[in-house]
């Protein structure tokens, strides 16, 4: 009976989480879409200079990119919480994968005049799924890039567990206990159209049973 009750509770929690996800994502999908449509109507209605047209076209592209990211995050998150599919595991060099993902954002950090310092960069191997691991690192790096300032210090520790620790100065106050909750964003982050799913996806991936 206890096992059955636990199963009921788990199913109810997943359903509630999915319903909350759908409600929130519906609102967040509407915002960039409405904004993009507004600029499209502006381009159609008025005769604008070439410079003005380029400006509004760039804004439309940015809004559609935001929309695309929202859809991708939503799809990933719902796939995780519904336990859809199993993932192929193999022995991976974690540091190599982390460094490859980090290199993709080197120019972004460099353009902000920020340095990245890594401590403990010895080779670490772990049985994992490469696609999931890359998504975890990607989300962590993007989060550090978007929501902090100054240099980034990354410590890689091994023992009973493998730990990647990011140390950086935040742009705004946060509620630490809620940063891994789906759709958690600070007030400033919300105005930047962040989905609030990045770290939630990291948490779900690291805790999932593969």
Automatic annotation (TrEMBL):
Top-level EC class: transferase
Catalytic reactions on record: ATP + protein L-histidine = ADP + protein N-phospho-L-histidine
Record-linked InterPro entries: BphY/WalK/GraS-like (IPR050351), HATPase_C_sf (IPR036890), HATPase_dom (IPR003594), His_kinase_dom (IPR005467), HisK_dim/P_dom (IPR003661), HisK_dim/P_sf (IPR036097), Sig_transdc_His_kin/Pase_MprB (IPR008358)
Location of the Histidine kinase domain: 24-210
One BP annotation, GO: cellular response to phosphate starvation
Entry's Gene Ontology molecular function annotations: phosphoprotein phosphatase activity; phosphorelay sensor kinase activity
Statement: the UniProt record of this protein carries the keyword Acetylation: no
Subcellular location(s) per record: Membrane
Family matches, as Gene3D superfamilies: 1.10.287.130, Histidine kinase-like ATPase, C-terminal domain
Main location: membrane
Its EC number(s): 2.7.13.3
Protein name per Swiss-Prot or TrEMBL: histidine kinase
Native organism: Thomasclavelia ramosa
